[in-house]
Amino acid sequence: MKKYFWDNAQNYFTKSAYNSDAEYKYEEAWPKYASGDYDVDVHPLSQSLGDHLEAEMLWARQRLIYMMSKWGYGPFAQYTDSCLGRINFRTQLAQAFKLTPFMDLYPTILSGQGATHASADRVLSGEEVTISGAGGTNTNVYIMAADELESIGDLSTLTVDAASNAGIAIASKRLKTVKVGDEVAEKVTSNLQQLSSKRKYKLPLITNLILGK
Question: For 102-144, how does the pLDDT look when each residue is reduced to its tens digit (9 = 90+)?
Fold first, then answer.
């Protein structure tokens, strides 16, 4: 694929011509978009992707991830596969989670070693979906492809297995925040150790983070 496609993709346009065109179309349009003078569905700056090769590879990568999520393949099927990031913890009972993907996706949660909980419909970028019934009594839960998620919702009511140090392991590149508490103490029923009194953690470019003891 590299020999017959990627090595030739950049030859469509020179880097200088491609970047000059991108600057005019996307970067100079950014202030006008921010002021409301340029009304489009997609933020212009998000389309400024460097050279042509980078744009082609990003499109192909995201298309492959989308198809794997739709058909339950690879990192959306095997709980041991963490190549796209993974969030895992051990529950005391089945619970619901609100996931927000950064790209169009079929978000997936795996329970134990075989149960799959996935969105039945395509979830658009930035939209939230609720996935119910994940986990159970002393059951491992894996939120798969965490690199493609912006949010995993409010965890202030999450009940985890205290025998496993009441912790949660997070590996994600795009997760923006993890909310494990609330300003109103009575709303917090989670038993996540050392974190239930905290309000929100900003987590830019996480590679690995253990929340708990």
Answer: 999 999 999 987 789 999 999 999 999 999 988 888 888 999 9
Q: How far apart are CA 115 and CA 102, in angstroms?
A: 24
What are the strands of the beta sheet with 201-202, ordered from one edge?
129-134, 95-101, 149-154, 177-179, 201-202
Distance CA 64, CA 182 (A): 38
DSSP string computed for 23-73: IIIIITHHHHHHHTSS--SS-GGGG--SSHHHHHHHHHHHHHHHHHHHHT-
Give the bridge partners for 98, in sequence order.
130
CB atoms within 10 A of CB 18: 19
pTM above 0.90, yes or no: no
Bridge partners, 110 (sequence order): 116, 142
Q: 10 Å Cβ neighbour count for 51?
A: 16
DSSP, collapsed to helix, strand or coil, labels residue 136 as coil
The pairs formed by 198-202 with CB atoms below 8 angstroms and a separation of 24 or more are: 201/177, 202/176, 202/177
Residue 85 DSSP code:
-
